[in-house]
Amino acid sequence: MKINLLGQTLPQLQELCAGEGFPRFTAKQLCDWLYKKRVDSIDAMTNLSLTQRARLNEIAFIGREHPVRCQVSKDGTKKYLFPVLDGHFIEAVFIPEEDRATLCVSCQVGCKMGCRFCVTGQQGFHGNLSAGDILNQLFSIPEFEQLTNVVFMGMGEPMDNLDAVLAATQVLTADWGLGWSPKRITVSTVGIIPGLKRFLDESQCHLAVSLHNPVPQERLAMMPVQKAFPLNQVLALLREYDWSGQRRLSFEYTMFRGENDDPIHAQKLVELLKGLDCRVNLIRFHESPEAPFKTSMPTTIKSFQDYLNRHGIICTLRASRGQDIDAACGLLAGKE
After folding, report:
1. What amino acid positions are annotated as catalytic residues?
2. How far apart are CA 258 and CA 278, in angstroms?
3. What is the CATH number of domain 3-61?
4. Least CB-packed of 48, 171, 206, 245 within 10 Å?
């Protein structure tokens, strides 16, 4: 099987070059062509010899795939559809703002987590994306040069495909890659503890934890992961790390009418997060036929936000973007 060069780290490319008898510096040349010049053809790597390029064409390829569809929201958000393994598709969302431009990327085809409020989770799991598949979502959109931030909040659970996610973030942040600051990248999780611990040890990117309910049994009814990895164990792990530096910890909290938006939920959330240097992002639930929930009333959301802020937890309400093209939180499904 041919190797996808896109997504390969410098050490991986050094190993590849050593196995082919290429000079060691060839790996650095490959990084330059792949990540700094962003070529989509091995033949474009003109400082490699013809023999090297011929051999690379035999054993490898550059996995650049253009999106097959782009939907544009009335608010300027764009949703891109990409072909991936076995005839499946994944989606990425470009979110332009005045002072930043964010791409929300997917890391899996579907998702194993089965959260009852998430359209992606309802479609089941169809496979992991490679680091190349993840990076292609950035490299193959016209807005690449505009990007200021990337969030791993699209289809899939990043901690369930951690090798590929870490490789992709390494390409984004390493000197031999794009050289971004880790502060430009946020990785989300529902709380897969083994992957989470490894992520915290090996990465300096921001972390966003999908919390959604502070009451264990109620969270379990929404998120099956609560049974295997209870929230109290996730929080115990997070408290072992220093969050006072550049790496930021946030909690995602989608507001469901009558499910998790009562004052008692706000009170329990404050108790749960007490002493932890973090922030809470409230998210309006985006209703869909696949999920049996309603969004909270605006006044309820405002009261919930005010309570958290009054009690020392920085709490913001995330702007809903791209809802008219099913590009908002929890609505990505890779439909084609």
Report:
1. 91, 329
2. 25
3. 1.10.150.530
4. 245
> Contact, 196 vs 235, CB < 8 A?
no
CB atoms within 10 A of CB 250: 19
Give me the residue label for tokens 């909290």: 253
Q: Which residue has the higher pLDDT, 332 or 53?
A: 53
Beta carbons of 319 and 284 less than 8 angstroms apart: no
Distance, in Å, from the CA atom of 149 to the CA atom of 297, rounded to the nearest integer, reads 30
CA angle 96, 289, 325 (to 5 degrees): 20
Domain boundaries, the chain: 3-61, 69-325
Is the dihedral angle over the CA atoms 233, 238, 241, 244 positive or is it negative?
A: negative
- Answer whether 101's CB lies under 8 Å from 151's CB: no
Topology classification of domain 69-325:
TIM Barrel (3.20.20)
3-state helix, strand and coil shares in percent for the chain, rounded to the nearest 5: 40, 20, 40
| SS3 (DSSP) at 50 | helix
pTM: 0.94
Nearest to 160 by CA among 202, 209, 137, 127: 127
d(CA 111, CA 269): 26
Span 218-270, pLDDT tens digits: 999 999 999 999 999 999 999 999 998 899 999 999 999 999 999 999 999 99
**What residue type is assigned to position 287 of the chain?**
E
Residues 6+ apart with CB under 8 A from 143: 78, 94, 96, 101, 103
Q: Which two tokens stand for residue 2?
A: 């041919």
**Strands (DSSP E) along the chain, which ranges?**
3-4, 60-61, 69-72, 78-83, 89-96, 101-104, 108-110, 125-128, 149-152, 185-189, 206-210, 249-255, 279-284, 314-317
Is residue 176 within 8 A of residue 35, CB to CB? The reply is: yes
